[in-house]
Design brief:
The protein has 427 residues and is an alpha/beta fold. It has a domain of 203 residues: Rossmann fold (3-Layer(aba) Sandwich), CATH 3.40.50.410. Helices cover 26% and strands 19% of the residues. Helix 2 runs antiparallel to helix 3 and helix 4 packs parallel to helix 5. The longest helix has 38 residues. It is elongated. 28% of the residues are buried.
């Protein structure tokens, strides 16, 4: 035999060794390829990013716990999203809360009476220029109030319109016979200008026993116009002072003391101004007017009065003019002396304007004594830098510090309502 038994054994051993070496080499290759595939699955190519939606909090897969704590963010953009993260709308800015004012302890029980100082003196002030035209833009700081020469502190100031309560008292004596219809027409112009809240009453007067309230206070223009149409001329001795006294008193007392009363009170008188037989004297009339806050506007037909004066007396015209001017100036009103009845429409419109364009000023007087004495009042207003416009303040000239228990004195003639008995006559 070519091969001995010993050679065959050597060949078998070599074959087995070769097979073992090949097995080892093949196993190493398989393990290496497996490792490469695993690496490629964990690290995808950057040229083909995975298109996966941003994970929500409920579906976020578990991640390996990092060795450091990451900075918290509101939103993480998906891989490949180039938009910067945002925090959303900021909260509203904080606001400082004011420290609450401590409430004082309650010291007044429900049944206690609270007394409020109601001694404020109220003034209705008109401001005009040299041509008697109203000036409506004067500020509060430009006004100054003096009582008996002592400066007073202004407690309230307003330019707003307030309801007006006024009387229209017409002299229907024979001296105004030719002017009566024009006077009635002027009265209608004034009444037709009334605004909501305004109230008017009508008086016709002749002598002391013929002072008649034709229509008491009402807001009804129809009733007032009908009342004017009922006016008629009647003979008698004219009692201008008595008519003004009673009419102003009626205006002053109307709704006086009502809660929140801020009414403006006025009296419009149309007369020739000649007083022939009044119960009251002028001194008594003006003393009474100083107790009231009633502005008086007078239309005086004085041209027909006698101008000649005697040795010891003034002329009837001069006396009438003086009375009319004093009525207006003492109360902060205005006097008109028409040359003809054609001026009445314009005068009526000026009275309406004056009633509407006024300043209301209230002050607390420094003199608290209620001793019945007279206190002079003066209101001044600062002049503007432009000297071409002069400001003139007009209001009542004073007040009477009436005593609380003041009373007595002669009884006035009563204002007669239609259908009532004749009032007390002059003794």
């Amino acid at each position: 035999m070519l091969f001995s038994e010993q050679n065959l054994r050597r060949t078998g051993v070599l074959a087995i060794c070769c097979l073992i070496v090949l097995g080892l080499v093949f196993g190493s290759s398989v393990r290496a390829g497996s490792d490469i595939n695993l690496v490629s699955q964990e690290r995808p190519r950057s040229t083909q990013p995975a298109q996966q939606p941003s994970p929500s909090p409920a579906t976020t897969p578990a991640q390996p716990v990092p060795t450091t704590t990451p900075t918290p963010q509101t939103t993480r953009p998906a891989q490949g999203d180039r938009t910067a993260p945002t925090l959303g709308d900021p909260p509203p800015p904080p606001r400082l809360k004011p420290t609450p004012t401590p409430t004082p302890p309650e010291e007044i029980d429900a049944e206690s009476t609270i007394r409020i100082n109601a001694e404020l003196v109220q003034l209705h002030v008109r401001v005009i220029d040299r041509n008697n035209r109203p000036i409506n833009n004067v500020p509060e700081g430009a006004f100054h109030v003096f009582e008996d020469g002592v400066a007073q502190r202004i407690e309230s100031f307003t330019r707003e319109e307030v309801p007006i309560s006024y009387g229209l008292a017409v002299d229907t004596s024979g001296s105004l016979r030719s002017q009566l219809q024009s006077v009635i027409d002027a009265g209608k112009t004034i009444i037709n200008a009334n605004k909501p809240g305004d109230e008017t009453f009508l008086v016709r007067f002749i002598s002391s026993d013929k002072i008649e309230t034709v229509q008491d206070f009402t807001a009804s223009k129809e009733q007032l116009l009908d009342g004017l149409d009922s006016f008629y001329v009647e003979g008698g001795q004219t009692a201008v002072i008595d008519a003004v006294y009673l009419s102003a008193e009626h205006v002053s007392e109307y709704k006086k003391g009502d809660e929140g009363d801020r009414r403006r009170r006025a009296l419009i008188v149309i007369t020739d101004g000649e007083d022939r037989n009044s119960f009251y004297k002028q001194e008594q009339l003006f003393a009474r007017l100083r107790e009231e806050d009633v502005q008086i506007f007078v239309i005086g037909f004085v041209n027909e009065l006698e101008k000649e004066a005697g040795l010891i007396r003034k002329s009837p015209r001069e006396k009438a003019v003086n009375l009319i001017k004093k009525l207006a100036s003492e109360t902060g009103g205005r006097a008109f002396f028409p040359e003809s009845i054609s001026e009445l429409p314009q005068i009526a419109n000026e009275i309406i304007r004056d009633l509407r364009t006024q300043y209301v000023i209230a002050y607390n007087p420094t003199n608290k004594e209620q001793d019945g004495t007279y206190r002079a009042i003066k209101v001044t207003v600062d002049q503007p830098s432009d000297s071409s416009e002069k400001r003139i303040a007009l209001t009542r000239t004073g007040r009477l510090a009436r005593k609380e228990s003041q009373g007595g004195g002669p009884r006035p003639p009563a204002v007669r309502m239609p259908g009532t008995a004749t009032p007390n006559k002059k003794p």
